[in-house]
Design a protein that fits this description.
With about 400 residues, this protein is an alpha+beta fold. The protein contains 13 helices and 10 strands.
């Protein structure tokens, strides 16, 4: 393993698929071949560039453009995006097999053009025709950067009925927005942001608006480091006016549209967390085999073997839950219970596996020479992203209990 691989946590000595990768649902041969190509692209091109990409700024933007060009040249660009918007149209049932290996790096989805899937899907279904014509294909092509603003500083993100950001209509059909949003991924460099806002006094009268970040009154307040890492932002909308056609969907339909987006988003996150957990697992196993003490290699220590076993068990038992949610969501069936189970299990699993890998690495696992701190940070944040564990636990339990009759 060379110094660059050590710096980025690239498990070059790991098996091609990795023992944690076994147990995958049936994968068609053509998708399996595509999976290997995507895995190689992420391993050989994206991971070595992570230090530059993590730093942000002009150098990161240039490197990302270079990677996106390479993905296009390799025929790997925008695999799950709809064909009508410039993608390759892979359905979720097939793309899921790729999302794991693509997500092994936080930058994999952006480099391969699938990071915009949620926005392209949402706007492709619900945006007005003028907005679709002007923006959706450019978003899919990576020419416009987007983000999604729902959570507010003084409002529980789990209770959108308490949203305080407001959008006021004018006689000419425009809307003017006032409010603050925070923990918005990528807002610092976004061209467009979809904003959840109140459009009436009724708690359910919530709507979505597509807001250009260049509009007067839009301001990036600050970056919000998450456990020391950047990428999240707080924004202010101080009298931002948008045209009538920037309303996404009909007035008052934000919760339905957001629900569609969240269900797909949670499943995609779970798949990518599986890929990141496999990366941490491979690093742990390589370390256990290669690190020796006077008494022998770490791999011979029973406590290290226990960490390896528990991590492998966590990955193998989580994957079926995630793919069950994929199957139901792809079939258009009610997937709320399956998605809730998968989301909680995958978040806990990533945190557990990354923590175990750090433990096996010792002090080296806490420093800048491996990807483990970033993987652990993602695992801890995962238990809050798209709803905390407690929200999903309560929601799943309520739905399950409704099906049981009370004995008379």
């Amino acid at each position: 393993m060379n110094s660059l691989e050590r710096a980025q946590g690239i498990p070059s000595a790991a098996p091609a698929l990795g023992v944690a990768g076994f147990g995958l649902p049936d994968c068609p041969p053509d998708v399996a071949e595509l999976r290997e190509r995507v895995a190689a692209f992420v391993r050989e091109r994206v991971m070595p560039a992570e230090l530059v990409l993590d730093a942000g700024g002009p150098a990161a933007r240039a490197e990302l453009r270079r990677l996106q060009g390479a993905a296009r040249d390799a025929g790997l660009w925008a695999l799950p995006l709809p064909v009508e918007h410039g993608g390759q149209g892979l359905p979720l049932s097939r793309y899921a097999h790729l999302a794991e290996v693509e997500g092994a790096s936080d930058h994999g989805p952006a480099a391969l053009g699938s990071a915009s899937l949620l926005d392209v899907s949402m706007l492709g279904r619900h945006a007005t025709a003028p907005v679709q014509e002007r923006s959706v294909r450019r978003i899919a092509a990576g020419e416009l950067r987007t983000c999604y603003a729902m959570t507010e500083p003084d409002t529980p993100g789990t209770d959108p009925a308490l949203t305080s950001t407001r959008a006021e209509p004018a006689d000419n059909g425009t809307w003017t927005l006032h409010g603050r949003k925070w923990f918005i991924t990528g807002a610092g460099e976004a061209d467009l942001v979809t904003v959840l806002a109140r459009t009436g006094d009724d708690p359910s009268d919530l709507s979505l608006f597509l807001v250009p970040t260049s509009a007067p009154g839009f301001r990036v307040v600050r970056e919000l480091p998450v456990l020391g890492a950047g990428g999240q932002w707080e924004i202010e909308l101080d009298g931002v006016t948008v045209p009538a056609d920037h309303l996404v969907g009909e007035r008052g339909t934000a919760l339905r549209i957001a629900g569609e987006r969240l269900r797909l988003g949670r499943v995609l996150r779970c798949l990518r967390w599986l890929g990141q957990a496999e990366r941490a697992f491979d690093l742990m196993c390589v370390r256990a085999r290669s690190r020796s003490q006077t008494s022998g290699p770490l791999a011979d220590r029973q406590l290290v073997q226990q960490l390896v076993f528990d991590a492998l068990l966590a990955i193998r038992t989580t994957r079926p839950l995630v793919y069950e949610a994929v199957v139901r969501l792809d079939a258009g069936e009610d997937s709320r219970v399956e998605t809730g189970l998968a989301k909680v299990a995958a978040a806990r699993m990533l945190q557990q596996v990354a923590d175990a890998a750090i433990q096996v690495h010792g002090a080296a696992g806490l420093g800048p020479d491996t990807a483990l701190p970033a993987l652990f940070r993602t695992g801890r944040a995962a238990r809050l992203l798209d709803g905390p564990d407690e929200l999903h636990i309560a929601a799943v339990a309520r739905r399950v209990l409704r099906d049981y009759e009370v004995p008379s």
